[in-house]
Amino acid sequence: MDRNSVIGFILLGVLLVGYIVFNQKQQTTALREKARQDSIANLNKPKTFTDTSSQASGKPDSAQLAGEYGVFANAATGTEQNIVLENKVVKISFTNKGGQPESVQLKDFKNAAGGPLMLVEGSFNRLSLQLPVNNHTLNTADLYFTGSQVEKAADGTQTLRYRLSVTNASEYLEYIYSLKPNGYLVNYTIHAVGMEKALPANQNTLQLQWNNENHIQEHDMQNERLNNQVHYSNVDDKHDYFTLQRTSHEKFDTKLHWLSVKQQFFNTTLIAAAKDAPFSSADVNTKVPVSGNIVGQTFTTLDIPYNRAHDFSYPVQIYYGPNHYKTLKSFDIGLENIIPLGSGIFFWVKYVNKWIIIPTFNFLSGFISNYGIIIILLTIFIRLLIAPFTYQSYVSQAKMKVLKPELDELRKKHGDDQQAFGMDQMKLFKSAGVNPLGGCLPALLQLPILVAMYSFFPSSIELRQESFLWAKDLSTYDSILNLPFEIPFYGNHVSLFTLLMTATSLVLAFYNRGMADQSNPVMKYMPYIFPVMLLGVFNRLAAGLTFYYFLSNVISIALQWVLQTFVINHDKIHARIQENKKKPVSKSKWQERLEEMQKRQQGMQGPQRKK
């Protein structure tokens, strides 16, 4: 065996060992993550008391209750009862077990199947305090509270109180909920009287446990999971977020003003109502089930500042509602930032959405009920907005078309010498009075609008379940054919608006083929390849978005045909260019300095060549 073979076998051995070590590390990490998830799930799983010592009497053993529930032993057992708070837009069912919301229905919305939209539903959802009792943690969600009757104020506000006594009636933990006649905001107050005696002497925070489970509400589970996020804002109003699919655990040691679990079109948010008493810290664990109708789960622990006062109150607000920009903005806490109107390198387009697109959209929707027509009018408005620049762009294209024969001659003259061609090309443009960048301005102006629309339409709740033509829901893809198989990079359905958008993009590219550099294969064929490459991306996106892009393409094609056929006179442009060539070309100071530098360089190179 020669030396090369030995080296080859050694390298293969090293790669094999490396793969085994890496695989074991991945498996260890996965096992640790599973153990952590199981531990969290067990900690937050509803507890049911089981008496094994006194089956004959049917009554729980008092010693066992005291050992497990401590001073809350009297609340370990009971009968579950429900009370409802309801207004025009939301219906919340509360249970005395845990003194917490059991289900939340948004009355103005339906899920994708046409049933009631339940934002909270199922035993997984919990809102409780974690209390240290006899060397272990007890969740108030496992205790039976005493519920009051609903109190109604003169303004229609409904209030519900749940009380959990400690050792006597004068020492208790109380949850107070109030709901106004119209709105998605619930005022939630944690009220503790005499609780400092039942807690360790060094405890200066209370842990609020909030478990949230999101069920599928829309047609596309994959898209919902991409939009299932946790958003948060600290006391300096700095907003950030993470996606459940990408992050399984996040710990915040900074003080938070609010924390929100966001779905595609809805969210549940906990807000520290007192600005001077924010949440001290937070710990969020997430889980995305591999199957079923559950989009994602969050296990959140919020630390509440506790001053150990005999009579302690901590106000919290809970928002159960839609991701509607105007509604969220009305709270004036930056909650509207959870709506993705522009992020990453295109973060600045959110201002286009906030200052132009959303106000125009809201104005049109104020007197037009058909959102397809609103999109048409919005598209026309945007095109009118940039019409002067678009006209200048077409004039510039016409000038370039007139100069094309001369440019072709220059290419033949210089061949592969791109530098010489570029210099003569600039001289030609200068003598003809043509700005080669004249056609770029409208494209630059349209870019932020195109990107803004890419963010706006998929996140606009106004389009949700609104139909137009064959599209049953403008907030999701308009499938005209569901395929029994998956096509890589495309999907398992056919979106007609996406096909129309791609077709008109190709027509537009063909119409402008004379403007591209025919000598460069990339520039020549990219306008045709790019729309086809994007076909798979847009096939899953909102029908409202692809309809807008399709309509914008149609308007562009129509405008080009009308302007270049009836408005722009190529003969006049050619004559004007020829006149411009006869005029003396004035040099700018920058050009004069550049020429001086070139002469100096040539002068320095001359003596060197002689040597």
In short:
This protein has 611 residues and is of the alpha+beta class. The chain has helices spanning 3-44, 62-69, 221-226, 325-329, 349-365, 371-385, 387-414, 418-432, 440-459, 496-511, 521-533, 535-538, 543-567, 570-582, 589-610, and strands spanning 82-86, 90-95, 100-110, 116-120, 126-133, 136-139, 146-147, 151-152, 158-165, 172-179, 185-193, 205-215, 229-234, 239-243, 249-252, 256-262, 266-272, 281-287, 294-305, 311-322, 479-487, 491-495.
Description of the molecule:
By secondary structure, this protein is an alpha+beta fold. The protein folds into two domains: 62-339, Beta-galactosidase, Chain A, domain 5, CATH 2.70.98; 350-582, no CATH class. Helices cover 41% and strands 25% of the residues. The chain is built from 15 helices and 22 strands. The protein has helices at 3-44, 62-69, 221-226, 325-329, 349-365, 371-385, 387-414, 418-432, 440-459, 496-511, 521-533, 535-538, 543-567, 570-582, 589-610; strands spanning 82-86, 90-95, 100-110, 116-120, 126-133, 136-139, 146-147, 151-152, 158-165, 172-179, 185-193, 205-215, 229-234, 239-243, 249-252, 256-262, 266-272, 281-287, 294-305, 311-322, 479-487, 491-495. The strands form four sheets. Strands 7, 8, 9, 10, 11, 13, 14, 16, 17 and 20 form a ten-stranded antiparallel beta sheet that branches. Strands 6-5-12-19-18-15 form a six-stranded antiparallel beta sheet. Helix 10 (496-511) runs parallel beside helix 13. The radius of gyration is 34 Å and the shape is elongated.
